[in-house]
Amino acid sequence: MSAPPALPAEPIQARRFGKARAARAAALQQDYVELIADLLAAGGEARPIDIARRLGVSHPTAAKAIARLKRDGLATALPYRGVFLTPAGEVLAGKVRARHRLVVDLLRALGVAAEDAELDAEGIEHHVSDATLAAFARFLGRGGESL
């Protein structure tokens, strides 16, 4: 049997786990903002019930997330009109969409099937650093495109 791997120093390991926890929290916010932008672009409205269905969550769960988006200045909601993004929400949605496309394009360049690349990118896009995304862009011949 081989020896177990050496553990990194506590501060280093704590930083790594902290980064992962922060990315998970940001991923939820980013998924909502990206979906709202997509729904608005596709049909002109993003109703909470549609958001819940497309994310596969309950209506109350979506309502709580939308309330957080509003609190964070990323969205507004009007009675009987649905959810809209603020300018800050639109910027975030654009950034998330660009990150997603870059990860999908990298995975496709590596030979990953289109549907698998889309599924995998949904998680990777939230957890990869800007430096790594810039490396992906350089690998794809896009320079160090800013995300």
For this entry, give a set of tags.
mainly alpha, Arc Repressor Mutant, subunit A, Diphtheria Toxin Repressor, domain 2, 2 domains, 5% strand, globular
What count of structural domains? 2
Q: Which fold name corresponds to the CATH topology of the largest domain?
A: Arc Repressor Mutant, subunit A
Strand order of the largest sheet: 1-2
Count every beta strand, where a strand is a DSSP E run of 2 or more residues.
Answer: 2
CATH class of the largest domain equals Mainly Alpha
CATH H level of the largest domain: which superfamily? Winged helix-like DNA-binding domain superfamily/Winged helix DNA-binding domain
Mean pLDDT, all residues: 91
Approximate helicity band? 55-70%
* Uncertain stretches: none
Instruction: Give the CATH architecture of the largest domain.
Output: Orthogonal Bundle
Bin the strand percentage: 5-15%
The rough form would be described as: globular
For the record, give the distance between the C-alpha atoms at the N and C termini, rounded to a whole number: 44 Å
The largest pleated sheet is described as: 2 strands, antiparallel
Evaluate the radius of gyration. Answer: 18 Å
Structural class per helix/strand content?
mainly alpha
- Tally of separate helices: 6
